[in-house]
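Hi support team,

I'm filing this because I wasn't sure whether my run with 6-O-phosphono-beta-D-fructofuranose finished correctly. The job status page said complete, but I'd like someone to confirm that the output block is well-formed before I use it downstream. Pasting the exact inputs I used:
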Amino acid sequence: MHVDIGNALASVASPGVSRESLERLDDQVADAHERIERGMANADHGYESLNLPQRTDPDEIRAAVEPVADAEALLTVGIGGSSLGAATIANALDSDTETVFLDNVDPEWVTAHLDRLPLENTAINVVSRSGTTAETLANFLIVREAFESAGVDWTERTIVTTGESGPLRDLATRHDLPSLKVPDGVPGRFSALSAVGLVAAAVCGHDLEALLEGAAAEAETLTGSLFECPAYAYGATTYALDQRGAGTNAVMPYAESLETSAEWFAQLWAESLGKDDLGQTPARALGVTDQHSQLQLYRAGPRDKLVTFVTPREGPDRPIPETDVEDLAYLGDATLGELLDAEFEATEASLAAARRPNVRVEIERVDEYELGGLLYGMEAACVLAGELYGVNTFEQPAVEWAKKATRGLLGGGEFEEAEAVAEKTELRVER
Ligand SMILES: O=P(O)(O)OC[C@H]1O[C@](O)(CO)[C@@H](O)[C@@H]1O
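And here is everything the job wrote out:
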């Protein structure tokens, strides 16, 4: 990926970061890079994520999905990092395989998906590192029941990706299901370039080697300076802007195919950096659509955010037909791609003109190689930012409270968190 931080400089934006500040910060980047390199070399928890381009075995993944490689549809049952990486890749790339990601427990929504999928020709990709995530297991039990009710042998259509032990590992063993292991030392939000993210890509027929080669090429750019490494330029600049008041990072891809990547980024950024009262709030946006929605706030609201544009340099195009509507005649001389590019450049300039910080992240095009580089680059940026914040990037203790409360509310044990739910302070305003 390529990064342009020009519109984040103090000479352009407020909040902004001066070149001098970036040069001082670069010393911390160099120290952080040494810790990151050491962590990778030692395969330390979390840092191991940045070794995935070398660790992941595409042949092992293809072998596991071989029984369902011809599936008409793929149903992925997982949540958070066990779904978003796979969804980012699947939703970015064209495939004849219909993909559905069950990463919520909305009964109407789950039922609607199950009712319309051709279950006899649908593969089930159930993913959970722990194997105990309530949403994933509840949805898997419902999916299994739906297959049984339809007379389809779910054991012939299911691939399991999970940890070394736990209920899902037991299920795979009991039913002799094709299974893959969630790699040790890789938190879910950093696992897109492992079996967790690549089983879906394999079933969809995507080029796993190209995804990993793009990631490996991005890994080669990791040097000790933000002025030489795009990932570190992004991680350091967003950190510096947050330190200067940009507490929100609105990620705005200018491609429908990259919309899910903003959702994936949101988990990566929030769950990695949101600790010890620190962290930057990721907001999800989409270009051009949000120029007619959130741009008003970004350009004229509080000076508390930066906008991260993610844009492919090239892609398929389509001419706009001529029109006899005089005011719109200029459109007939253009293509949709030219309109999209003009709108992106205009919006980027619009923010700079209002001295609102923004960063441009570019990839050549939306293909496996470039996507692998983007995923890896943002992961490396996040690891660097975590080093600069001084937080524990790779744990997520704050999510456990609600899990315990949920379990307590459903009679799954005695949890004081569940009691706290009952003590909610109310001030109801009824219609
Ligand atoms: O893969 P698992 O263990 O089902 O966890 C799913 C997701 O839930 C979390 O643990 C947060 O609850 C995420 O970090 C993770 O990606």
